Amino acid sequence: MTLLLVIFLPLLGACLPLWCERYGRTVCAFSAAVAPLISIGLLIYHLPVIFAGDVLFFHQEWLPLLGMNLSLRLDGLSMMFGLLITGIGLLVILYARYYLAEKDSLGKLYGLLQIFMMAMLGIVMSDNILLMIVFWELTSLSSFLLISYWSIKSEARKGARMALMITGAGGLALLAGALLLGDIVGSFSLSVILASGDEIRAHSLYPVVLILVLLGAFTKSAQFPFHFWLPHAMSAPTPVSAYLHSATMVKAGVFLLARMYPALAGTDLWFYIVTGTGLTTLVFAAYTALFKHDLKGLLAFSTISHLGLITMLFGLNSQLGAIAGIFHIINHATFKASLFMAAGIIDHETGTRDMRRINGMWRYMPVTATVAMVAASAMAGVPLLNGFLSKEMFFAETLHLEALGHYAWLVPMLATLAGIFAVAYSYRFIHDVFFNGEPIDLPKYPPHEAPPYMIVPMAILVVLCVLVGTLPNFTVAPFLDAASLAVIGTEMPSYQIAIWHGFNLPLLMSFLALAGGLLLYYQRKGFFAFYERQYRRDEKIVFEARVQRSVRLAQSITKRLETGSLQRYLVLFVGMAIVAAGLELWPLAGFTGAVATTPLDGVSVLATLVLIVGALGTVIIHHNRFAALLLLSVVGLIVALIFVRFSAPDLALTQLSVEVVTIVLMMLSLYFLPQVSPSESSRLRISRDILLAGAAGIGMGLLTWAVLTRPYDTIADYYLANSVSGGGGTNVVNVILVDFRGFDTLGEITVLAIAAVGIFAMLRRLRLPVPNADGTGRVWSKDPYPPILMVLARILLPLALMVSFYIFLRGHNLPGGGFIAGLVTSVALILQYVASGTDWVQQRLNWSYRSVAAGGVLIATATGLASWVFGYPFLTSTFTHVHWPVVGEFELASAMVFDTGVYITVVGATLVILSNLGKLAQTSYDIPAETTQEDSPWKL
Questions:
Q1: DSSP 725-782
Q2: How many CB atoms lie within 10 A of CB 644?
Q3: What are phi and psi of 836, to 5 degrees?
Q4: Based on CB atoms within 10 Å of each CB, which residue in 116, 171, 650, 881 is the most buried?
């Protein structure tokens, strides 16, 4: 259960800063820090177990038939990432307190950050690959909201959209790969998948699975050619960049490589794709970073380059390479988060991030400069800092690539070249920003040091860079060992983290990179001129052009299909349905099967004739709307009687109740329409419609006949056999609704409540021109509430409520239930509105029907959650028998609580719709008779 708390505490804590924002920014920041602090404490509590090499698991069934369960694992890898996510998140919360302007909502930022934190923790701690993908997509959605935090800025909106589309597309590829993995190994459990590496690699679908999974990882970690979204995400506030683009979102891709390493690594295909992509990204992004004038742009491309380095290390099919990759994940998170914070401080105090203008900052903010220079040195791989250790391990691993044969020298050469670029852009960060003369035309002058607590988070991270760089075996070694064991999955190879390994090739490559980087920087003018002469396309312009092209194509297709004609839509829909069904039914040898038909009787024939007459009459006299509605109600009544004829009383009661509510709804709607509609269809269109309707009707009749005259298996026998023993009720229909298919019912009432709220939103400010007279010109009565109707309605109300209560209580064992009872209650209450008016009812029943509908959904959902508390799957019901004196023995079922939620939702949703339509109708009595439509205040 503690693993579950680690993930969901940030989600619960997301609401706290929104509420505390009113008490000041400091209180808001402290409230935002509560959940991450507790999560860190829970993770630290489990450290001894993880360091011992054990793995903690949590399992709760969720959707077992789909293979999707709430399964969590805490091993060395997830522990390392969990501490990075929560620890750096906590520092970012402190930093953001002083970064955001007073006009910006701090509570909103903290809330979104904690939702994102929850999603990242879910990714790294999932033990079910489908669950991991749910959290994976949550990171895409929450990062979209974070990047577009300043939504007033066009570049923020476009950058967020670009990030969402690229990472979202990668997420779809990952989902496809996950489904194939589950099919190969027969389980979606990550524990099973990771233990089935040999089976997966030997399968014929391995190349497809590998490419799909790598697409998810490469898009998330901004690997070439999907790198372009990350620089444009720099339009986010700097706290967001420091969090998402150092320790969390972009690390999700390399985490996936590490997590899937036991299952997918070890083949030539893995080596060439992963190593090639990582090496290309490493060199290309390092080269590009050198020439960026925007401070965050330089850091963005350096991040892409370091992610390429990590990706390449995992692609080498070397255990030491994987260990070096994990080590660099830790190191990069610390120095890059601090550098983003430094960039934010400089931007905050100078008003710009242009390195051609922010010169000589050493004189104005020496503390920030000192801390930032140490972090930049770690990024460059300077000795005695953490970046040096992992980069030297990287250089060492590039020297052992026998798979490339005679071309093996290319990789260490390109790795050294990337190191030269890294030193050059790191030194440029230091020299151009903190030295290089005086600042030029700053928006804020003179700059000064940021508030101390804004520098503290950056300083903590830099201290970690120094401690890891000088005392690796006393600081990072236990975490690295535990994480590496989780990735490699077998016995650990012998390795040593040391500052000094003697004079060797990796050390030589490090010093070549340092010397070459400094030389390159001091000869930068020629390189900058060469770079400026190159033809370059702005990725954002290209991306936006393609988006707009897609939009125009969609608009053209939509314009052809959506003409605004409901008849056209129905013709296309019905016509395609006829064609599709005809193609399937055509090969049938005959439509009549071997099952004997039921003999006809007079009552059935009469009901069928009435049904046909009512349907045809509705079509023929549809121009007279009121008469057509009456005939339509006859059709509904006959359908209810058909259900009675075939022993389906629950369906009959539901049909009858729905029919009453629907007729009332349509009567209210007809009030605003002319009583007679004009003829608008030509003879040709009428002929077409007759042909389509006839073909559809005959087709459905033949299909029904073909099915019913043939023997077929049905699931009804299962429900009949298990209704009493499994659901505790003899009314099979109700047991299906509230027990066997309770999840469906929950979804349906949720949709009903949402639809009611949507209708309320549309009607709330709607003002329609309403008639003062009927179609013949007779003026409506000034007394809209006849006394006889008022008296009868008030007498019927308690009787109807009693019937409704009776139907509700008997529903589990006899025809009835919450849905039917809710409709009966709704009709009784609507009758009060019709008979006595809105004001009279609201004086006595001053409820918010929207809250009633929402409360019903919550009650039904809480019933499902309660089963989780007792260790059962969602919406598992139970029942028992209770004996009371006088009353005797009777049954109590938890499904009754769920049915109560259904009842309340139906009442609330129905009354939201009908009462608000009724209010529109009542406005007609407030309009003077002489008021014209043009002068009407209710005119649309």
A1: HHHS-S-HHHHIIIIITHHHHHHHHHHHHHHHHHHHHHHHT------SB-TTSPBPPS
A2: 15
A3: -120, -10
A4: 116
